[in-house]
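Input chain follows. Return structure tokens only.
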Amino acid sequence: WCWFLLAALVSPMKVGLRMDFSVLLEPLGFVKILEWVFAIFAFATCGGFQGETALLVSCEGVVNKTVTAAFTYPFRLNTVVFSAPDPKGCGGTWTDAYLIGNFSSSAQFFVTLAALAFLYCIAALVVYIGYNHVYQQNNKFPLTDLTVSVLTAFLWLVSTFVWAKALAGIKVSTGASIVPGIESCKAPGTTCHFLSVTSMGILNVSVVFGLLNMILWAGNVWLVYKDTNLHSQWNRISESP
């Protein structure tokens, strides 16, 4: 598929470039546009997140000082440190306090899949629009498209599940439950109270886009399947006495 696309772009006259945008109005082309757009949304809602969790700290000489820990994609929370409540570190009792957990593998899996799906949709649209006649005449291309669609639908299912599970862990690791685990907050004369954490509604939306992408690619499997000889062979078998 990729070699065909490369050859088509390098020598369009040899392959036979025939621009036909009407394919975008057909289910196969229209669904591919939706997959392209939803891949962008999945990538942006997860990969572009920036958040912050804040505590209210009181210690000797410092009263109600806000300390923060800023976190972002790919959510390696164990590298995120809270700011010290004062330059002297609460009279020497405050030590570096980190968030807990590393959720980078799940987040990067989700975002990488979105990026690859985005690139594949562009390649597929180029073929659909410029070389649809070749796509329809050579069954190897629909079969390749079918294989990629099945694999991508499965990967969207897996990546969305693991990302949703990681998101639940991120919420716990940046919420009120972090206070008992901070050793500096246990020092004599020091008290810590959870203040706030950035809303993660946009990350919830990313999970929704993951599910929508899975549904779109699963539906695309049927649309591509109808263009393969597998579908025509099955029809001949079912119609034979």
